[in-house]
Amino acid sequence: MRISGRFLWRSVWLGGELLWIGLRFFLLYTITLGRPTLRQRTSCFQWAARRTLHVFVDRVEILGPLPTSGLLVSNHLSYVDISLLGSLTPVVFVSKAEVKRWPVFGWFAVLSGTVFVRRERRSEVSQIAIQIRDLLKDGHLVVLFPEGTSSGGETVLPFKSSLLEPVVGQTHDVHAGCLSYSLANGVVSKDVCYWGDMTLAPHLVKLLGKPFVQARVSFADIREPATDRKELAKQLHAVVSSLHAKP
Fold it and tell me: For a surface tag, which of 7, 183, 196, 231 has the fewest beta carbons within 10 Å of its beta carbon?
């Protein structure tokens, strides 16, 4: 009964936040005659991410320098990651194309300027790399999850190098990030992490019935990025893994 009560009020809370966020984006697109700048969209999404994050997370610990431009690569655990990173600073996410089809969340991802990619199509990956290069030139912070999928958080999966090409040999800042969660009553790998063959609706229902989650985000600047994308992938993986191993 206690869990069902928690789920009820938090689901109503989340629904209210999503309605309010939808109204905020509607006003943004109305005021700008349907043509908001990307910075306006990412700023609006930062506000939205802060509101949705509070539904799931009641404490965030930030370690290391918070990046504001360049490329940020991070491990990937859950859809909560999007609200967590998006709440800290305006960002442009690079996401797998399937997210675009998610109900509500996919719509907000489109409105906020998310770059969608189908990694299995090499020609499309090349086009996305050009988009990322342009975003970096314009001074945006681009967030990439180079594992290519989410995981249960026990380890950091190998990094794919295909989308790292835009920063190879360039002067753009490169940053590493590591996300982790803790939960007083539950198992993080099952109740917070969203991966494998999990489906969104049942996982979301379960998470809303749990106590609040605590989150930690660790950042590190990459002072001398490798000049080969495959070597850069290994370098970034080593840094993220070291952040992951810290207690």
Answer: 196
CB atoms within 10 A of CB 82: 25
pLDDT in tens, 132-157: 999 999 999 999 999 989 999 999 99
Give the DSSP H/E element, type plus range, for residue 117. Answer: strand 115-117
Q: How far is CA 18 from the centre of its chain?
A: 18
pLDDT tier for residue 119 given thresholds of 50, 70 and 90: low
List the chain domain ranges: 2-245
Take residue 186 and report the two structure tokens written for it. Answer: 């539950």
- How many CB atoms within 10 Å of residue 224? 7
Q: What is the pTM of this model?
A: 0.94
Strand partners, 94: 115
Residue 51, token pair as written in the block? 């509101």
Backbone φ/ψ region at 139: left (φ over 0), alpha (ψ -120 to 50), beta: left
Task: Report d(CA 190, CA 224) in Å as an integer.
Answer: 37
> Is-contact 71 163, C-beta < 8 A?
no
State the residue for tokens 């380890």. 155
